Amino acid sequence: MLEVRFYDTVPDDKLKFAVILSKTREKWVFCRHRERTTYEIPGGHREIGENILDTAKRELYEETGAIKYSLYPIGAYSVTDTGAEESFGMFYYADIEEFEKELHSEIEEIIITEELPGAWTYPLIQPKLMEYAKKAGFF
């Protein structure tokens, strides 16, 4: 069974990924990978030698084309699946002001919407992130 936990702090060396809940002009920004039909919150894995904030900035750019934005930490969280090791990431909020004209990654499209997607890529994780961000006062 998949479990999502939230933390005030996690040692930096344990953070393996960054996820960035994003809005532009008061609307949500979600992305869709070219090999999927579902939507997700932008994010991805940390590269060797990269600090977690730079991971968030890189992933936000790669997955949305955001080039001008404000970025705020929401908190750390982990995901554990039955029999698997706990995996930690950092959760951010971005207010995007400007996008590049086209995407240059594995992302097929972004959507800018007032509604949450009906089909999440990670339905056991993403709604919990949204709920946590709401409780933290990010929307």
From TrEMBL:
Key words of the record: Hydrolase
Domain of life according to the entry: Bacteria
Pfam family of the protein (one): NUDIX
PROSITE patterns reported in the protein's UniProt record: NUDIX, NUDIX_BOX
Matching InterPro entries: NUDIX_hydrolase-like_dom_sf (IPR015797), NUDIX_hydrolase_CS (IPR020084), NUDIX_hydrolase_dom (IPR000086), Nudix_YtkD (IPR014078)
Gene Ontology MF annotations: hydrolase activity
Coiled-coil region(s): none
Keyword Signal: no
Similarity remark: Belongs to the Nudix hydrolase family.
Protein name: 8-oxo-dGTP diphosphatase
Organism of provenance: Anaerocolumna jejuensis DSM 15929
